[in-house]
């Protein structure tokens, strides 16, 4: 935030937070590795410790304790950064945002024509349900927004999936692609070894 009409005076106050995580319904190791490599590259350009620190923060932040899993296969997350000058932090946040675009768009292009049937669609909806659970129960931004007087509720809830599904005691078949994804979101993996 800059003083109105006095940009050269520098920031009055600054807040830097954000992140990116990948939440696939099916696990493609090469996609996840690529996603993490792109984020690590952006982090390393600003601080060699950022990626490891922010990946760990992401793994903790996006946890869904009542399911013993995370929202997805990780990424980076950070909040209230103050370890560098505001201009440097702004540059990092800007570069991290661009890294997300460079990481995510190729994955969509690679997978958008992948054939699927009713089983895959049902699983996708179940995973979207878990995503919605995190956003409604644990996400600090959603909670803050919903508690803000006069808030535009629909704007706050825009991050929720349009459709989702919940099934009682849903357990995928052992060894199935669905079970493989669950294994990945229930363990912490170093995707850029």
How does this structure look, described?
The chain has 193 residues and is mainly α. Helices cover 49% and strands 6% of the residues. It has helices at 29-44, 50-61, 86-111, 118-137, 140-147, 153-156, 177-185, and strands at residues 18-21, 63-64, 69-70, 75-78. The strands form two sheets. The chain has a two-stranded antiparallel sheet with strand order 1-4. Strands 2-3 form a two-stranded antiparallel ribbon. β2 and β3 form a beta hairpin. α1 runs antiparallel to α3 (86-111). The radius of gyration is 18 Å and the shape is globular. 23% of the residues are buried.
What is the terminal-to-terminal distance? Answer: 38 Å
Rg, nearest Å: 18 Å
Shape: globular
Q: Can you write the helix and strand succession as a string? A: EHHEEEHHHHH
Number of strands: 4
Summarize the main sheet: 2 strands, antiparallel
- Low-pLDDT segments, ≥5 res: none
Number of helices: 7
Notable features of this structure?
193 residues, mainly alpha, globular
List the SSEs and their pairings:
Layout: E1 18-21, H1 29-44, H2 50-61, E2 63-64, E3 69-70, E4 75-78, H3 86-111, H4 118-137, H5 140-147, H6 153-156, H7 177-185
Helix pairs in contact: 1-3
Q: Could you give a short description of this structure?
A:
The chain is built from 7 helices and 4 strands; from the N terminus they run E-H-H-E-E-E-H-H-H-H-H.
């Amino acid at each position: 935030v800059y003083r109105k009409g006095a940009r050269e005076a520098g920031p009055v106050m600054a807040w830097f937070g954000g992140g990116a995580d990948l939440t696939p319904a099916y696990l493609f190791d090469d996609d996840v590795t690529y996603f993490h490599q792109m984020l690590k590259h952006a982090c390393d350009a600003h601080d060699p410790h950022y990626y490891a620190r922010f990946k760990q923060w992401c793994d903790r932040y996006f946890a869904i304790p009542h399911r013993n899993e995370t929202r997805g296969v990780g990424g980076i997350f950070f909040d209230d950064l103050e370890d560098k000058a505001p201009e440097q932090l702004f540059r990092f946040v800007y570069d991290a945002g661009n890294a997300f675009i460079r990481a995510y768009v190729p994955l969509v292009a690679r997978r958008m024509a992948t054939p699927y049937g009713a089983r895959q669609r049902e699983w996708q909806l179940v995973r979207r349900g878990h995503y919605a659970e995190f956003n409604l129960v644990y996400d600090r931004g959603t909670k803050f927004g919903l508690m803000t007087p006069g808030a535009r509720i629909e704007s706050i809830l825009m991050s929720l999936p349009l459709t989702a599904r919940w099934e009682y005691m849903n357990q995928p078949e052992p060894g199935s692609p669905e079970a493989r994804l669950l294994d990945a979101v229930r363990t912490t993996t170093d995707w850029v070894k």
